[in-house]
Design goal:
The complex is a heterodimer. By secondary structure, chain A is α/β, with parallel strands linked by helices. Chain A contains 23 helices and 24 strands. Helices cover 46% and strands 13% of the residues of chain A. In chain A, the strands form seven sheets. In chain A, strands 1-5-6-12-14-13 form a six-stranded mixed β-sheet. In chain A, α1 crosses α21. Classes of the chains: A alpha/beta, B mainly alpha. Chain A: GO terms for molecular function: calcium ion binding; iron ion binding; manganese ion binding; protein serine/threonine phosphatase activity.
Chain lengths: 651, 138
């Protein structure tokens, strides 16, 4: 009809508009979902590699035991190394000895702390660190000494109470991300009597301002010892610091006094409390629990005897242990290894395991308690374990950290376990948010999230995801190249027709087996290999645009691959041998170490090759080898990269 | 014969799909208890793997939810720009996206604008936008 025409035209118009809008919306949402998935994949890659590395780290402790048993002839002359490995409370680290010798010059324009510390010193440090100033070693040492003194008076678990008007804030891992701490203090207020905090471990490693974070936290603690609570994390461990970057940061920032600082820090770590209990209801520890967690025992142990995860109690055969006096006042076991003091300087194995569980465990949905196979230490604990342990000690909730979560926090086990992680962009810019929690008795916990961004304006999602993804893929490819020989062998075993191609399933199977990483290989394949039109994978294509730089032309590829693959472990081993932190070890030590290493890890490398390599690289400095230079020479080159060196640096 | 082979082919394809789906599911299943969060109206807020697998397999086999082709997307924008300016103003885009079809949330709108809008003209040159997104996808 006449009157219907114009409205029907209008209807048609709005109908097409609706359809068009729908098309755009559907497309957009499909893309967003895809982007979020890619982001999550990237995170999974980072996490798997991180945990695999931790596992490698923990396996090192077995190597050290092996080393001690087989290396003693060389070690007889090097008691420092042994005591370093077995733990020692060496000479009384008298502060007057150290501090008396250090001078703060007038030309120093960094922050100057005034003891006894007050809240103005906290502000002072924050302002100074915002301007990238470095606190003088003198003050660092003073703070460390004072912190140790105060921590020694604290019990293993801090008990604290909240009230409706006094909430407590709980922060998770910071890992050297200073900006996140600034943000927390700015958004949530500085610590004070009315604004208490718990920092749940892992203040250091990986980020580049671990030192500054420690200083701010320790100074905050010294000013408000009853309101700023620090729990030990698995990274508050001098052995972990060697691999994960903090040791390097200290030695770089404090060229003169770094070694001294590291020594004192070792001690301070051991005095950090194991956990905090809030209102007798909430248990706050860094990792988690296990089915055998015994809070009463943990309240009683001498926590400072837990030096490092890599130094488990040495099994001692009591009958054959003999005591011999020598000039340093050490004793000697039948193995010829000298230890300091009596053997009761160690925790029992049971006590040690209890601490490991607290620092390293992760909650999982599966019921029961299982060894934590990805990390290599602690366990996976299920909701039934949580209920059992919480009920046993009449607690209501467990708050822990230790795992990076995309949203900064995560609730599981029916609301009984909360993970809080405070380092945003932990793996890479855009990888995750950070969070903190505020609790008070009687009210449900409140969560606050944030994400630091270095750009002045936030980049669109697709750019951020691209960045995280490329970084993750790059890391994964480097992993692949360090296992190139094993991978190719595995591929060829399945490639009966020697075509150079495999089905996706076959390829995925080999990748998972050889690399030991549980990843969505089928979905990732498009980023790692080329596929032909039949859907088959050209397995050699992953290795085309990436190779390990040959430090010298005539070197066997397997040697290069091996050194590259184990470079982090070698770094730590060398570091441990180099007890005076000079950066040099003798050629003889280098050779014996290499021999032990290759036999323990079943690596088939001709020893003579290594000698030749070291010589050709001209790293021999009067019979000593600069092992940092040695290891740095093995890096990965990405062909289509503007950068020449790999971003993944040795710890 | 041919039937057997094609059935076998489908079975292998299904098995491969199953593995691919499982891998992807596990990435999101942070608690390792075979459930993932869901943003749909599920009474529990979770979806179980056993329920997810057959539905997803069918989706993949029937090749549903294929990516929307570039030219269709372009035409959709052109419908909203009948005067053929070549761009939509910020206000126009917001109006269409938040009032028509299945409306965007504020977060979705902001996110889309952050990538689509040309800050100088405060408008969306949709052809450029589409090209940029498509390049990125590959």
């Amino acid at each position: 009809m006449g009157c219907g025409t114009s409205s029907s035209v209008k209807d048609k118009k709005s109908e097409t508009a609706l359809k068009a809008a729908l098309v755009i919306q559907n497309w957009y949402r499909g893309r967003s979902a895809q982007l979020k998935t890619r982001q999550r994949y990237a995170l999974t890659i980072f996490q798997s590699i991180e945990y695999a590395d931790e596992q490698g780290q923990l396996q090192l402790s077995n190597f050290f035991s092996f080393m001690l048993e087989n290396y003693t002839r060389v070690l007889e002359e090097d008691s420092e190394l042994v005591t370093h490995l077995l733990g020692s409370n060496i000479q009384d680290k008298d502060r007057r000895d150290y501090l008396g010798l250090i001078d703060v010059p007038d030309s120093y324009c960094g922050p100057r702390l005034q003891f006894p510390l007050t809240f103005t010193d906290i502000d002072l440090l924050i302002e100074a660190f915002k301007q990238q100033q470095i606190l003088h070693a003198y003050y660092v040492l003073e703070v460390l000494f004072e912190t140790k003194k105060l921590l020694q008076r604290m019990p293993n678990f801090t008990h604290t109470k909240t009230s409706p008007s006094k909430e407590i804030t709980i922060c998770g891992d910071l890992h050297g991300k200073l900006d996140d701490l600034f943000l927390i203090y700015s958004k949530n207020g500085l610590p004070s009597v009315s604004n208490p905090y718990v920092f749940n471990g892992d203040f250091v490693d990986r980020g580049k301002n671990s030192m500054e974070i420690l200083m701010i936290l320790f100074v905050s603690f010294l000013v408000y010892p009853n309101d700023l609570h620090l729990n030990r994390g698995n990274h508050e461990d001098f052995m972990m610091n060697k691999r994960y970057g903090f040791t390097k940061e200290v030695l770089n920032k404090y060229k003169l006094h770094g070694k001294k600082i590291l020594q004192i820090l070792e001690d301070v770590y051991t005095w950090l409390p194991i956990g905090t209990i809030i209102d007798n209801e909430i248990l706050v520890v860094h990792g988690g629990i296990s089915e055998s967690t015994d809070l009463n025992l943990l309240h009683r142990i001498e926590r400072n005897k837990f030096k490092s995860v890599l130094m488990p109690p040495v099994p001692i055969d009591g009958d054959r242990a003999t005591e011999k006096e020598n000039k340093v006042g050490t004793t000697s076991t039948a193995r010829g290894i000298r230890t300091n003091g009596s053997l009761s300087e160690q925790l029992t194995k049971h006590e040690w395991d209890q601490v490991i569980d607290i620092l390293w465990s992760d909650p999982r949905g599966k019921r029961g308690c299982y060894p934590n196979t990805s990390r290599g230490g602690g366990c996976y604990f299920g909701p039934d374990i949580t209920s059992r342990i919480l009920n046993k000690y009449r607690l209501k909730m467990l708050i822990r950290s230790h795992e990076c979560k995309p949203e900064g926090y995560e609730i599981c086990h029916d609301g009984k376990v909360i993970t809080v992680f405070s380092a945003s962009n932990y793996y890479e810019e855009g990888s995750n948010r950070g969070a903190y929690i505020r609790v008070s008795s009687g009210t449900p916990p409140r969560f606050f999230q944030y994400q630091m961004t270095s750009a002045t304006c936030l980049r669109p999602l697709y750019q951020r995801v691209n960045a995280v993804e490329s970084s993750a893929i790059r890391m994964l490819k480097e992993r692949m190249i360090s296992r190139k020989t094993d991978l190719i062998r595995a591929f060829q075993l399945q490639d009966c027709s020697k075509s150079g191609k495999l089905s996706v399933g076959q390829w995925a199977f080999s990748m998972e087996n050889v690399l030991g990483l549980s990843l969505p290989w089928r979905s990732l394949s498009s980023r790692l290999v080329t596929t032909d039109k039949d859907g088959n994978i050209d397995y050699m294509s992953s290795f085309q645009d990436i190779h390990i730089q040959k430090p010298v032309k005539e070197v066997q590829p397997t040697l290069i691959e091996t050194v590259y693959r184990y470079r982090s472990d070698l770094q730590i081993i060398f570091n441990v041998i180099d007890s005076d932190h000079s950066g040099l070890i003798s050629m003889e030590e280098f050779r014996s170490m290499w021999k032990l290493f290759t036999s323990y890890y079943s690596v088939c490398i001709d020893d003579s090759q290594l000698d030749e390599l070291a010589e050709r690289m001209d790293l021999n400095k009067d019979g000593s080898i600069d092992f940092n230079e040695f290891l740095k020479a093995f890096y990965v080159v990405h062909k289509f990269d503007k950068l020449n060196k790999s971003d993944t640096t040795v710890a | 014969m041919a039937d057997d082979r094609s059935r076998e082919g489908t079975e292998t394809a299904v098995a491969e799909f199953h593995k691919k789906i499982k891998e992807a599911f596990e990435v999101f299943d942070h608690e390792s208890n075979n459930t993932v969060d869901v943003e749909e109206e599920e009474p529990t807020g979770y979806i179980r793997f056993e329920k997810f697998l057959p539905v997803m397999t069918e989706v993949l086999l029937e090749r549903r939810y294929r990516p929307i082709p570039e030219d269709i997307l372009l035409r959709a924008f052109e419908v909203l720009d009948p005067a053929k300016h070549g761009f939509l103003s910020k206000e126009e885009l917001i109006k269409y996206m938040t009032e028509e079809g299945e409306p965007f949330s504020q977060e979705e709108m902001e996110e889309m604008l952050s990538a689509a809008i040309d800050p100088e003209s405060n408008s969306v040159h949709y052809k450029d936008y589409i090209t940029m997104m498509v390049i990125d996808e590959n």
